[in-house]
Amino acid sequence: MSLPATSRNPRRRIPTNSERLHQVCTTAIQNLDEITAELCKRSFYRFMQEFWEVASNDKFSPNWHIEYFCNEMQKVAERVASGLPKLYDLIINVPPGTTKTLTCSIMFPVWCWIRWPWFRFIATSYSSTLSLESAEYSRDLVRSDKFKRIFKGLAIKADKDTKSNFRVTYTDSSGIVHLGGNRYSTSVGGTVTGFHGHILLIDDPLNPHQAVSDSERATANEFVDQTLSTRKVNKAVTTTILIQQRLHPMDSSGHLLAKKGKRIKHICLPGEINTPEFREKLSPPELASKYIDGLLDPIRLSQDVLSEMKADLGQQGYMAQVGQDPRQIGSGLFKIENFHTITELPPEASIGRRVRYWDKAGTQGAGAFTAGVLMYELKNVKKWIVADLKHGQWATDERERIIKKTTEADGQNVVVVVEQEPGSGGKDSAHSTITNLAGFAVFADRPTGDKVYRADPYSVQVNEGNVQLLYGPWIKEFKDEHESFPGLTKDIVDAAAGAFNYLRGKRRAGPVL
Questions:
Q1: Per-residue pLDDT for 318 more than 90?
Q2: Domain-by-domain residue ranges, the chain?
Q3: Which of 39, 49, 95, 195 has the most CB atoms around its CB within 10 Å?
């Protein structure tokens, strides 16, 4: 009869569960960097969490959409790395301020290199400044002490180390250094000749000002179609990832989605889905269950933040950039039924700043009008009063006489702002008016962008019922132009929007330059 092992060797002791756990923990601690490296290689989202503090000064605030984006991009990268024919290009539409650039343009290429150091990227954006800044963050991540400690052997090639085009090297288990892939960064319309990518990254190919320009949109879309599309390592495998906020029905996302036969996976996440229009834009629709109280990200895009964005962006800017629901700007911009007419001004103590804004035209009877809108800002409340309108087709001398007479009637406590049109003629005209109003507070305003685009923030306050009209014979004409805007004439709305933007500090008036 044989005895148990402990009886044969009474000096041998079986470790307790506590001792076994201690040994496992000790081994894990000794190999913590190796474990971290393996976990990061397996999951792009895990890599994001681990290296967030290296790439950003802000504390990491998790939200489901970040993990979702990471998983979708990881699927793309794994298929490209396997050399499999692509199933689709990936388009992601998401509001600003949701970590899209940090995720897609900064951290994603670096994560790919820890698994496939031979990957080549072409990364582009609407401006070279933004594109190069993202490249710099990626490069600094690879150079960081934490990264070098956990991913030993992956480095930036010393003689190929510029923000616009840097290359990585990697060391194999035998200690041999190999050339790896690279990141070439450019901007829309920039040079990409001679470069090819396994993945093409497009981060915001247009900014909001460019999106309202037919020529700028055409340039961006042609660049995506005719230039980037030819810069693929393997046309059957290389995948394009486009991430942007929607800005126009035919921005680059709209342009590509409208193409018949184009294989695209479209992820569209409005900042909130509390309206039917925004909810219809959500793609895929089953993601609605992840929204909290109808909000994509209650921390980054809380209801207070969204309300402030709506005030700043205007209703159509908000619909596009936050709701991912771009419309042809200007259509039905003003709900004139929300103008409130008052018969007398509130007490003097409740009235804040006052401005008369002039949108000038100098040709009598040729369809060009001059409009001067007097607007008051109320103290301690977000409300404004349109107190008067001067409007007509006047020759230059008559126009200047009317502007001076009106300024004298308004008094010294009303600031006068004159729109300065582009070019030397606009400068001379504004200078003439300022000289004519010597002794009064008068400035020139040099607005940029389309008149309809500039009127959008003002329209939000009109539609919220925050703009009141002091009763006068001019009200019908004032409302009529707002209702038909943008119609044949825009000068009244332009003057009202200019006054509002001045009071809100959205346009800076100054001396004629």
A1: no
A2: 62-268, 336-510
A3: 95
Mean pLDDT of all residues in 150-170? 89
CA dihedral 166, 70, 266, 219 (to 10 degrees): -20
- Report the C-alpha gap between 185 and 278 in whole angstroms: 33
Structure tokens at 455: 């009127």
Rounded Cα distance, 65 and 57, in Å: 20
Q: Residue 480 corresponds to which tokens in the numbers above?
A: 């009529």
Q: How confident is the model at residue 89 (pLDDT cuts 50, 70, 90)?
A: very high
Nearest to 389, CA basis, from 511, 494, 510: 494
**What's the one-letter identity of residue 266?**
H
CB within 8 A of 153, min separation 6: which ones?
A: 170, 171, 172
- For residue 452, the SS3 value is helix
Q: Mean pLDDT across the stretch 327-332?
A: 62
| d(C-alpha 357, C-alpha 443), whole Å | 10
User: Buried b vs exposed e over 126-142: b needs ≥16 C-beta within 10 Å?
Assistant: bebebbbbbbbbbbebb
Query: Tens digit of pLDDT for each residue in 251-278?
Result: 999 999 998 888 999 999 999 999 888 9
Task: Map tokens 């990200």 to a residue.
Answer: 297
- The pLDDT assigned to 25 comes to 63
Whether residue 205 is preceded by a cis peptide bond, meaning omega within 30 degrees of 0, is: no
Q: In whole angstroms, how far apart are CA 3 and each of 10, 14, 28, 227?
A: 11, 16, 36, 80
Say if residues 332 and 460 touch (Cβ distance below 8 Å): no
For domain 336-510, the question of CATH label 3.30.420.280 is answered with yes
Q: Tell me the one-letter amino acid at 508.
A: R
d(CA 108, CA 101): 10
Cα torsion 202, 208, 209, 210 to 10°: value is 30
Architecture (CATH level 2) of domain 62-268: 3-Layer(aba) Sandwich (3.40)
- Residue 225 is classified by DSSP as I
| Main-chain phi, psi angles of 265, to 5 degrees | -100, 120
Q: What is the mean pLDDT of the segment spanning 69-89?
A: 97
Residue 377 CA to residue 504 CA, distance in Å, equals 9
Enter the tokens of residue 158: 């010393």
The vertex-246 CA angle with 243 and 248, nearest 5°, equals: 135
Q: Give the number of other CB atoms < 10 A from CB of residue 34.
A: 12
pTM, two decimals, is 0.70
What are 116's two structure tokens? 């496939």
Q: Tens digit of pLDDT for each residue in 480-494?
A: 888 878 766 789 999
> Which 8-state DSSP code applies to residue 287?
G
Phi, psi of 362 (to 5 degrees): -115, 0
Q: Do the beta carbons of residue 114 and residue 83 sit within 8 Å?
A: no
Q: What Å distances lie between residue 273 and 130, 287, 323, CA to CA?
A: 30, 11, 8
**DSSP assignments along 141-179, one per residue:** HHHSHHHHHHSTT-EEEEEEE-SSEEEEEEE-TTS-EEE
Helix (H) or strand (E) holding 513: none
Q: Tell me what the mean pLDDT of segment 309-315 comes to.
A: 82
Distance CA(96)–CA(35), nearest Å, equals 34
